[in-house]
Amino acid sequence: MDGVCGGTPHMHLTCSEGYVVTGGRGAVQTLTMSGTTPGYEVTPLETGTVAWFTPGTIHRLVNEDDLRITVLMQNSGLPEAGDAVLTLPPQYLTDPETYASVTVIPADAPEAEQERVARARRDLALEGYRALRDAEGPEALAAFHRAAAALVRPRLAEWRERWERGARAAATATGEQLDRLEQGDFSHLAGAAVRAEQPSAYGKFGMCGRLDVYDVHKGA
Q: Which H or E element spans position 179?
């Protein structure tokens, strides 16, 4: 839409996200609230770069030359499983049904139709993104934050369950292991295990581009 080979700008509300660049070259454009003023930045990405950002960072991935990255997502992949709001114009952020009508990619549709929907939602998000980036003062970005928080509220119980099964359970297990070691109990070491995963889907239409997806939350 603007001549740049880029993904769909969006924001996560509860998760950090990181990029490990394994090949090619590109950049991530970000928009955050710096103090009381929206701050726009461009972070170059090249082989070996590790870049990450916290919740509230509007980000758009740009592919300049065969960019390849491994994406690390907090909370068992929650960023691609719901914790994201695209920077659509305000009229599409009024309620979950209106938002879904222009963002959901039908899983059973032919790939050509999935690509059409993905490109259409990207272009719509770019329209809202440019307005946020060009706005003077914090009001527009604050209004987007408010609308995004309202949109995701109905799904918070689902997100909490994933967090409790994943990140919270892992942190609790570490605390218990530390307690045992302090008491001279190392019995948990006998339960060591090795696991490996192959992608459960290849070339999925994600918000930042085409993704190979790993179901790392299974059994968490």
A: helix 169-182
The span from the CA of 58 to the CA of 17, in Å, is 11
> For the chain, percent helix, then strand, then coil, each to nearest 5?
40, 30, 30
- Tell me the C-alpha distance between 47 and 23, whole Å: 5
Helix (H, G, I), strand (E, B) or coil at 106: coil
Cα–chain-centroid distance for residue 107?
A: 19
Q: Is 82 left (phi over 0), alpha (psi -120 to 50) or beta?
A: left
Query: With contact defined as beta carbons under 8 Å apart, do 148 and 94 qualify?
Result: no
**In the predicted structure, residue 205 carries a pLDDT above the cut 80:** no
38-80: pLDDT as tens digits: 789 999 999 999 999 999 999 999 999 999 999 888 888 888 7
From residue 10, give the alpha-carbon distance in Å to each of 23, 74, 122, 187, 210.
Answer: 23, 16, 10, 45, 16
CA distance 1 to 127: 9
Per-residue pLDDT at 219 exceeds 50: no
Condensed to tens digits (0 to 9), the pLDDT of residues 86-130 reads 999 999 999 999 999 999 988 888 989 999 999 999 999 999 999
The answer to whether 53 touches 16, Cβ cutoff 8 Å, is: yes
